[in-house]
Amino acid sequence: MKQTQRHHLHHPRRVTTAWPAVAGAVCIIALASAVGRAQQAGEYVIGPQDVLNITVLNQAGLGGKYAVELDGSFSFPLIGRLKASGMTLPVVETELRKRLAAGFFNNPEITVAIEQYRSQRIYVIGEVRTPGAYPLAGDMTLFEALARAGSMTMAAGDELVIIRARHTGSPDAVSVAQEEAVHVSLEDLQGIASTVRTVELRDGDTIYIPRAPVVYVFGEVKNPGSYPTRRSTTVLQALSLAGGMTPLGAAKRVNVMRVVDGTTKEFKVKLSDLIQPGDTIVVPERFF
Asked: What is this structure's pTM?
């Protein structure tokens, strides 16, 4: 059973910047979000194939990079195997400190960090420049995930969807009950202070950026054809996508062909009127 949950992520000011500015904002915010990563990295849950960077103060021979093996554990000098999968970095630090203090060192100072994120992944598909699977690196935000995928293409729609499996049961016997879809408006994504930044990514999440619906522009325009549209696109904006009208275009006699209840109807429109997905805009030749 699938359940769809729509999150309205409001921003106090509506932003109407063109999409290329959104792509740039994604990259800028992705860099800014890295400032707080060190404070939140301790919440990351370690998994198989992650590589840990362990430092023991005044004991350089013990420090180094340790890969978590498929069974969820790794081997550490003096103490042998230590389970790490399913634990956070502070928990592993505490366990290492406790074992090394039991007959080896007095109050050892240990730091554990992630050298390479390999156990958890997210997927970015749809209208991005580099779709694919990406490691879920600690507190990775939605902005960072999109930046890693090269940001959106010009054909992206008005929103993206985060699809995740909702699990039930104990950690030892997990069963997937249903899927949940979180809808994020790309208009809200432009706001640096927007609450969209609170959207958390989880292991296995799929970020889907659907293609924008298109309109068709024909007649006396410089580049007739189909063009992706956003919400609140006007006739004039659609004509601009087609390079604008030719000198022969009749701006006051622009028509829109629209399917209504299965029937194609023709409407006379103003340049300021809103268009709908699937509309065909026709610019006739003006009379002399």
From this structure: 0.63
